[in-house]
Amino acid sequence: MIPGPFLLYLGHSDDPVAIKTSRGLAEFRRVDCIGEFRHDDCPLTLGLPRMGMDEAAAAGARTLVLGIASAGGRLGPDLVADAAAALESGMNVAAGLHERLRKESRLVALAAERGLQLFDVRDPPEDLSVGKGYPRAGRRLLTVGTDCSVGKMYSTLALTRALQARGVAADFRATGQTGILIAGEGVPVDAVVSDFISGAIERLAPARDDNGWDLIEGQGSLFHPSFAGVSLGLLHGAQPEALVLCDEPGRAHMRGIPGRPTPGLADTLERNLEAARVTSPQVRAVGICLNTSKLDRDEALRLCARTEDELGLPCTDPVAFGVEAIIDRLLCVEPSTPATIASR
């Protein structure tokens, strides 16, 4: 386990999506977050006290979390310099980037000298097996998306907590750096060799016989040319009983690919169901989660209602309106009324 409290890193970031790991920790493990570190040119904030390295260490922070998504997942000179400053101040350093902290000799030497640790969250297990796709006991839900960074992790966590609040056994199964930092464990599926992706998910969510649910964090999109392989491996390894589709309305194009439009909800849902049937023939869709953070409340409610009418599935923003209607569909109970949803 990575020792807290945490100092969350924003660095020089000016893209809200780029700080999603720090934002996720601030949202779901806020009690463990003591402050945020950002340079003067960073216009973003998580609403935490802004602190320097020495100040954070003096306040009790034990680990700097480099919670940003840099280009190509690389450790640039600024990140290395700031990580070194954290070590010099007496803090451990954690990161989920593709380029590992342990590859930086300067950081390795500093950590050893001061008795501190470097945590590379994106290290997959070394003894993974290929997936087999054989039926296994248990109830599993997987979130899927029209694109990357549309709210799959937030939705999965919200659904997990909602089930737990109803007294249903439910476990969040993390597959990305942010989810792993929040949960304290998981498999960084985008760092797994492609042959072993489905096997990694079979291991992450093994057979269970307590009638509880494993809620598996989705990654990427079947429609994204860069990351569809990860998405497909997740679908096959999860053997989901249920799918929840996630989307951010109004995106101009697929993330990182200007000129390539995002797919429609109905087409995305059908393609994911089709792919999931390879290992889970009875899979069903149970809801739509929209990230409506850029819309006002009334506009968001109208969009959710319209989407629900068009697709015949409960539709909500899990942050703004909760996920009770989707849980009702998942558990096959009487659905929440529109008035109930709107009042949340």
Automatic annotation (TrEMBL):
This is DUF1611 domain-containing protein. Residues 134-326 form the D-glutamate N-acetyltransferase-like C-terminal domain. Residues 48-124 form the D-glutamate N-acetyltransferase-like N-terminal domain. Gene3D superfamilies: NAD(P)-binding Rossmann-like Domain, P-loop containing nucleotide triphosphate hydrolases. It comes from Sphingomonas horti.
